[in-house]
Design a protein that fits this description.
HIT family, subunit A, 5 strands, globular, binds adenosine monophosphate
């Protein structure tokens, strides 16, 4: 598994608009936002895809979800609602192969996604 642009952001080698950080998770604004709020939550551990996660990552994946939910609550997004998305591999539309959770908010979401 090679390094990715998100690895460079985690190591502060390239800039990003970071909105949250703890020991395990970093969150920053998506460069190409698809909603008024579009934040990416990434585990600092470089897991390439959700398919590459194992039982050993269960706590980390839980932290990723809870970090996004806590951020949404803090930012006043939770009552109106939001969407979280993890794209996996080609048909999922994944383009950056460092696992990440999209948090999208600030507009009505639609289903099914295109
Ligand atoms: P995905 O298609 O699920 O792999 O999502 C990758 C996301 O990363 C896309 O929404 C991109 O707009 C976003 N992205 C790519 N490069 C950067 C960057 N340097 N900083 C912030 N977001 C980025």
């Amino acid at each position: 598994m090679g390094d990715t642009i998100f690895g460079k952001i985690i190591r502060r080698e390239i800039p990003a608009d970071i909105v949250y950080e703890d020991d395990d998770v970093l969150a920053f604004r998506d460069l190409n936002p698809q909603a008024p709020v579009h934040v990416l939550f990434v585990p600092k551990k470089p897991i390439a895809t959700l398919d590459g996660a194992t039982a050993a990552d269960a706590e980390l994946l839980g932290k990723l979800l809870l970090a996004a939910a806590a951020y949404a609550r803090r930012e006043g997004l939770a009552d109106q609602g939001y969407r979280t998305v993890i794209n996996c591999n080609e048909h999922g539309g994944q383009t950056v192969f460092h696992l990440h959770l999209h948090l999208l908010a600030g507009r009505q979401m639609h289903w099914p996604p295109g």
